Amino acid sequence: xxxxxxxxxxxxxxxxxxxxxxxxxxxxxxxxxxxxxxxxxxxxxxxxxxxxxxxxxxxxxxxxxxxxxxxxxxxxxxxxxxxxxxxxxxxxxxxxxxxxxxxxxxxxxxxxxxxxxxxxxxxxxxxxxxxxxxxxxxxxxxxxxxxxxxxxxxxxxxxxxxxxxxxxxxxxxxxxxxxxxxxxxxxxxxxxxxxxxxxxxxxxx
Length: 205
Fold this sequence. Notes:
By secondary structure, the protein is an alpha/beta fold. The chain is built from 4 helices and 8 strands; from the N terminus they run βββαβββαββαα.
């Protein structure tokens, strides 16, 4: 799961010319759901988003990066953004890593419910899943944070990466001196280097 989190003075969502959601100061979160995401990723992302310290202390001390959106009792606008899962093939984006819409919509709704249950329902707004939306965002700072859920031990993405790394290691190991074509560089089994001779004589002694 990926998110782009912006600290905003205000933000709103418009669909078909009608404004459907708006917030004052707080966070605008664009959320991209991966095809392999689970409840584990949901819990991680919700916890991190609500606890990110992106705001000054509200007491007027001017201390930056000391308060979360929850600490300041501010609002969150959460908007589904499947294009965050894009993979470029040349100049064309490919979205095979994004969760299909029929699965992503209920999954997104669970993320929304989780965030509302961990905070305050009236403080968490959203867009309209699957609709063509216009977002008006007044970034405050500007402050923009990219966040990704960590890959777990059983994550297929991590396993695939590890398998590819192992394949490269296996190929490099299979290329022995015989494949190099330089027979002169191959050591004579009957001889040994000086260092090896010293070790051998030490053992015999």
